[in-house]
Structure formats: structure tokens, C-alpha cells
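Ex. 9. Protein: Leucine carboxyl methyltransferase 1.
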Amino acid sequence: MATNLRTTTFNSCPSSTETDDEGVQGTCEDASICKRFAVSIGYWDDPYLQHFVRLCKERKAPEINRGYFARVQGISQLIKAFLQKTKCHCQILNLGAGMDTTFWILKDQDLLPDKYFEVDFPLIVTRKVHSIRSRPLLSKPILELHSEDSLQGDGHMLDSKRYAIIGADLRDLPTLEEKLKKCNMNAQLPTLLVTECVLVYMTPEQSANLIRWAASSFETAMFISYEQVNMDDRFGQIMIENLRRRQCDLAGVEPCKSLESQKERFLSNGWETASAMNMMELYSRLPQAEVSRIESLEFLDELELLEQLMTHYCLCWATRGGSKLGLSEVTC
Ligand SMILES: C[S@@+](CC[C@H](N)C(=O)[O-])C[C@H]1O[C@@H](n2cnc3c(N)ncnc32)[C@H](O)[C@@H]1O
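Predicted C-alpha cells for Leucine carboxyl methyltransferase 1:
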């Protein structure tokens, strides 16, 4: 088994002196640094990420880059399928968004929803708001769609006609809801919620509360979640142990046992349909020309490593309402 050769994961960890929440916030930096590295060697285009995160000098392993490629492609396909079904007459809530750049990319593609919301811890949001305000490439697209000359908000949030970023703790649902409503979240609109590597940092009870809150708040909705799966097997246990040794506890690993447990957390918390696919399966379904292009970027000697990593992450998506829109037909 290649398990011991490179025990890489898509998570990062803070130093042992940091508290749990600081550790979780630290994962934002790691995800965006890995994405930035993959972008810098041509895996996909993202002209915005460089304005949020520095380029890491150290090379990332090819299986990590391919993993991020599959993750970004998979999530983007599902988001676009939702936008197509709703003809963009909808809202998107990216929860635990970190330095995600989807808003800017959708704007370039003329695919923006009525409103795009991002939520993360106040500390992360403060950093992101600072980048947005100080770089015209990031603030101009927001201002162009806004009816006023300046953007509302303070260090912890920013609100405009089509984009809002809010500093809030996803475990404190009354405050989260209050802040979203202040930024004109519209519960009547078809709503897409996205959590990319986020739920695993909350206890199963906390993530179930968030999933249930989402189901009870929006009549027509879809939820996309990307995170670990098959964590009960040997490789999964090694991933957990490696992270724990680096003071990073995956508090929410319990629902990450299997594709079934991933779906079940939605079906038992108010969602009507749920689908899940591991990332190896998703990778095999990506357009062949695109896969050949990225596979020619770097030589990967240990295909087993890629397979091990990709079978330990999955995309899960759930829907409720939306039969007229055909939301339950959405797939990767
Ligand atoms: C691994 S990062 C992923 C960031 C982004 N979704 C991506 O994939 O690039 C996890 C993010 O979730 C955020 N997060 C985790 N728990 C949270 C909570 N309880 N409230 C707000 N944000 C949270 C972290 O601060 C971090 O930005």
C-alpha cells in the first residue's frame, strides 16, 4: 500500500498553541494556498485568487493538485447546473467560503445569481474584506452591479446589491440568520448552499443543526457538501491520526464513514433527495480532453496515491422542493 509514502491530505493544521477555532480558521489559508499553486501551474484559470493569497514556493504533490482540480471542477459543475435550472433567478450561500472566488468567476461568465452570499468567521472575513476594498480588480465587479458608489459595511462584513460577505459562526444559527436577513437574504428564492470542506470541522450535532436550519428556511433549495468519506478504513484512520498529531481534530468525522452516511445526514434532516459520489468516480466522469490536459502538466508516478486520496473525499448534494425546476435531476 502507498499509504505510508506520502500521507498528504487536503487539510492543514495550526501550531499546537492555537485554540480549536483558530485551527479551523487556519484551514482557509491552506485550501487557498493549494488552489493558488494548482492555478499557477495551469490546472485551471482563476485570475482572482492571487489577490487573496500568496504563492507558496514549495511545490504541492501532483495527487494533491489533481485532487483540487477535481474538487473545483465538481463543485463548479453542480453550481452551474443549479444556475441553469433556476435561470440564475436564485441566491447562493457559500458557507465557510474562505478565500473562494466563485462570485468573481460567475460574474465574468455572466452567470450571477440574484445575490451571492459568503459567510466565514469574522477574522477570515475581515481579511477578505480588506483585500476586496484595497484591490480594484475585486471591488470593481461588485460596484458595477451596485446602485451606489460605495460599499456598505465595516471590517466584519460588506453588503451590496449582488454580493454580501458576513462574519458569523455557522454554529450560532439565530445570529447567522439575523445577519443574512440584514443583507436581504430572500427565503422565497430558490437557494443553493455550499459547504466546501467545512462541515467536518463542526460536531455532527452542529452540522446536523445547520443542515436542518437550511431545510426549514428555504422551500426550494439545494445543498452541496464536499468533504471526507470512507474515514473508517485504514487510510481514513491514518488521515485522522496524522491530523490529530498536528493538533487538528476532525470534530465532525462521524458522518464521513461512507457515501450512505453522507446522504443520510441530509435525508434525516429535512432534505428530500440526496446523492453522493467519491472524487475518483467524479474524476473519471470529467471531460476526457480536460483530464488529458491536466495529466500532462505533471508526472504522477504513484497512481495508487491519487486513488487513495480521491476515494477519501466526496461530493454530496441534496435537494428539497423544486420539482418544477427539476432540481432532483441535477448530477455531476
Ligand atoms: C478548509 S477551509 C475551506 C474554505 C473554502 N470553502 C475552500 O474550500 O476554499 C474551511 C473554512 O470553513 C470555515 N469555517 C469552519 N467552521 C466555521 C464556523 N463554525 N463558522 C464560520 N466559518 C467556519 C473556516 O474558517 C475556513 O475558512
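Check your answer against this statement. The first helix runs from residue 20 to 40.
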